[in-house]
Amino acid sequence: MDAYDRITRNAAEVVTDEEARALADAPDGKRAYVGYEPSGVLHVGHMLTANKLIELQDEGFEVVVLLADVHAYLNGKGTFAEIRDTATRMQEQFVAYGLDPDRTEFVLGSEYQLDEEYVLDLHSLELETSLSRAERAMAEIAGDDTATVAHAVYPLMQALDIVYLDVDLAIGGMEQRKVHMLARDTLPSIDASAPTCLHTPLIADLTTGVGKMSSSGGLSISMEDSGADIAKKVEKAYCPPTADPDPTDNGEERENPVLQLFEYHVFPRFSEVVVERPDQYGGNLTYGSYDALETDLESGELHPADAKGALATCLNDLIAPGRERIRSDHD
Ligand code: NAL
To answer: Which atom of ligand 1 is nearest to the CA of 158?
Structure first.
């Protein structure tokens, strides 16, 4: 694997491929960022982009984590004081999860987003952008609530942050892609360059495999879960015994969330996965790559129940340090 392959590994898309290749060839000092609306606890969605940040740190990137307090406020997530408080706790959880604190810059949005220069640049982007474009960019980020003026301002601030944080690569889940496209189109109007973007896949709903996993509805795995909570949730996950003969549900595409969790959460962080099985069922299986595990699950060599057991153990190992952190905060 060359630098480009390592940077783009597991990405759902990069915009554009040529830009990502040029970045891979650029000398050290490259900066990448992700922004998160602070919420009390990390969930698997946060951890998926964090995995990419950890990989980029191994590639020599400097990483910026924007704790987007003003954005969370604009998206109706609570009072500003509450949000500020959760931002600090989230920072600790990211470090517990594995981000190298010496090579991660944590920035609170409100540190610069209220400065006069920033606000004037924001107004300039407001002049350039139609309400319908801003609304479309927010469709997958805002909840189901009625669109507000705050929701229209939000993506423009996200675009502007890319300029103010001076980063080379913007990382986000696929739900961020329309905001990033808006940023690419409008930033040149304030003489800033279009950011290169890398989007991570979305994990399907755990129990149905349809649509995407969400922390608001359905089952989601978070840093607060006990080992038993994780085992219970994973046990309920949709995971057909062999390659699904009918990969749709009422015409909707169905993914295997168990395989997705192995691919995007487990293998990026573990070099080897051991599936424990009693000798009478063939004994333990050891996998050094996601592909080998997928092949065995789809051929029937690896039973879903055994795969789920190994998945629950790995996820628990990943969240255990953060869970300790949260518990000691409560004490
Ligand atoms: C991500 C978010 C908010 C502001 C940002 C600014 C720059 C880069 C990324 C950012 C949060 C994100 C979410 N929109 O949905 O969590």
So the answer is: 6
